[in-house]
Write a structure and sequence with these properties.
Length: 547
């Protein structure tokens, strides 16, 4: 479907006194077919109101020099909240084998990601029905439960505390499904459609500072204390999680682009009931793009149990492992921003896209090319990391762990750095690609739930293989590398299309502005499924109302 209309070339004064094209008056002046005037008038009026509230005029000139755009501020604040919460969890996960013992750590992580996998099926419905902020708040309570159970375990060391650790892992799995689905929904809602990867990079960089902070805390702690009873560390982590949960409602609730433009009435609201939301999530398994991306989504979770736990625990002392986690997650930060520049090269930090280059075209035609470049970089960097790991595994049988200052740490450290860089590449690519495939906020919530479901399934499978008595470390390396190869190859079948490329905005003093809205023809089958599900939801709602 293509809607094409030239807006009037007449100008209307903005509240700055400068001419402003495409004003509300132009929409009602007869240049737009009468069928579309009510919707477009509502759209322009709402945008005018929101732009004034955000300190911008309708001609795109900033009346308040705030330095960062709305989406960037919200993404940075969300990253700070995650930094507080995950300073605890990522450190516990990295040191799980040493803190709980190898068997208990593996069992806890296995249960955690098993519950994460199951809960991801229902998490999109919770996020869509309750809202992302409330879902995020509820999910963080699961992380607090694991840290509290670990604190009790560190103090008492009783046998019944083992079951408490498993229960804490189960609560964390359910909370993680809500947390990560809500996180994706909020970032998509804050995006203007051209800076999805950029907002993710801001969030991802600040979020991974949690692991860097946790690594330094662990390095400082294990430099002076034994690994057996780190209860002060758990108490600090619990305080950080509580602080993060208290900051959630400072976030903006976020609204979809359609809602911001007053277009909620153009398409019927989908997912009107819990049952319909679950049915729509289930139907993602039959979509071609999601099926092609499933092996890559699985790998994003399957890789780190071997990388951080098996490989890290075998090769590094507890003190050095804290610094290696800093290397890994610092590389994550760098890789996320590199991926955002490769996927969205025209995004300028802190500058509105329409005013950054007044005569430029806003194009999406390079999406496929950007995806190919990003996948190529991800593949080459990951392969180099596994090459360093293979060399280290061949040399390090059952010798003592490497300590700080040992030159033997160079190869394993290089593997950690490359793995961290490549992990943020594939995470950014997956998040960006979901935004390319789906338009509606509810669809993206379901897609994020599907993505996290397969990712947590990969974590679950990886932690099931961690104990060396179950599978030798060298075979864990082979399986992880095979998962990477298969997932990357098959994901090439889901490269984004350039068919929705033409989006041109001409800012000229004498020429009319032309706007083309193009809907990808690949979405026809998906829309048919959504309309069918909407009919089912309407029938269910009517039945419930009658009852």
């Amino acid at each position: 479907t293509i809607l094409f209309w030239p807006l009037s070339d007449r100008t209307a004064p903005s509240h700055h006194g400068a001419p402003c094209h495409g004003h509300v008056g132009d929409l009602l002046s007869g240049a737009v077919p009468s069928t579309y005037r009510p919707t477009l008038a509502s759209c322009s009026t709402t945008l005018l109101r929101r732009s004034i509230l955000n300190g911008k005029s309708t001609c795109g000139r900033s009346s308040l020099c705030l330095g960062m755009r709305y989406g960037e501020k919200q993404a940075a604040l969300l990253g700070c909240i995650f930094m507080l919460v995950f300073s605890a969890y990522l450190t516990i996960q990295g040191f799980a084998s040493q803190l709980y013992g190898e068997t208990l750590a593996s069992d806890m992580e296995l249960v955690l990601y098993a519950m994460f996998t199951v809960a991801c099926f229902g998490a999109p419905a919770v996020v869509n029905m309750l809202g992302p902020r409330l879902a995020l708040f509820l999910g963080i309570q699961g992380y607090a439960a694991l840290v509290l159970a670990s604190l009790v375990f560190a103090v008492s060391k009783s046998s019944w505390c083992r079951a408490l650790i498993i229960s804490g892992g189960s609560a964390t799995g359910i909370g993680a499904a809500l947390v990560w689905t809500a996180q994706g929904r909020l970032l998509y809602d804050w995006s203007d459609g051209t800076n999805t990867a950029h907002l993710f990079a801001i969030f991802w960089g600040i979020f991974n500072c949690s692991a860097v902070l946790g690594g330094f805390l662990s390095f400082a702690y294990f430099s002076r204390a034994s690994v057996s009873a780190p209860w002060p560390l758990y108490a600090l982590f619990l305080a950080l999680i509580v602080l993060g949960a208290c900051c959630i409602f400072v976030l903006s609730a976020g609204k979809s682009k359609g809602a911001e433009c007053g277009l909620e009435g153009v398409q019927p609201r989908l997912g009107a009931s819990w049952r319909a939301e679950l049915r729509l999530t289930l139907r993602l398994f039959v979509e071609r793009e999601m099926a092609a991306l499933a092996p890559l989504f699985f790998y994003t979770g399957f890789n780190q149990p071997y990388q951080l736990n098996t490989f890290g625990d075998r090769h590094f002392s507890p003190q050095l492992l804290g610094l290696e986690l800093v290397v890994f997650y610092a590389s994550e930060i760098v890789g996320g921003f590199v991926a955002s520049k490769m996927l969205e090269p025209n995004v300028e930090v802190g500058v509105e896209q329409e005013t950054a280059r007044p005569q430029r075209q806003l194009r999406r035609a390079g999406k496929r090319r950007a995806a190919i470049r990003t996948l190529a970089l991800f593949g080459s960097v990951t392969a180099c990391g596994y090459a360093f790991a293979l060399a280290a595994e061949a040399q390090n049988g059952r010798v003592a762990r490497i300590d700080v200052g040992d030159s033997a740490a160079i190869g394993p450290t290089a593997a950690f750095a490359l793995w961290g860089f490549s992990d943020s590449q594939v995470q950014s690519y997956a998040f960006w690609l979901i935004g390319c495939i789906y338009d509606g906020p509810r669809e993206r919530s379901r897609a994020m739930g599907y993505y996290k479901m397969l990712q947590s399934l990969g974590w679950c499978a990886g932690f099931a293989l961690i104990p060396s008595e179950r599978l030798r470390p060298i075979w864990q390396l082979y399986l992880t590398a095979a998962s990477f190869t298969i997932g990357t190859a098959i994901s090439a079948c889901a490269l984004p299309s350039n068919s929705d490329a033409p989006v041109t905005v001409a800012h000229s003093g004498s020429q009319p502005a032309e706007v083309r809205v193009v809907v990808d023809t690949r979405s026809a089958a998906r829309q048919a499924l959504l309309q069918e599900a909407h009919s089912d939801a309407q029938a269910e709602t009517t039945s419930e109302a009658i009852q």
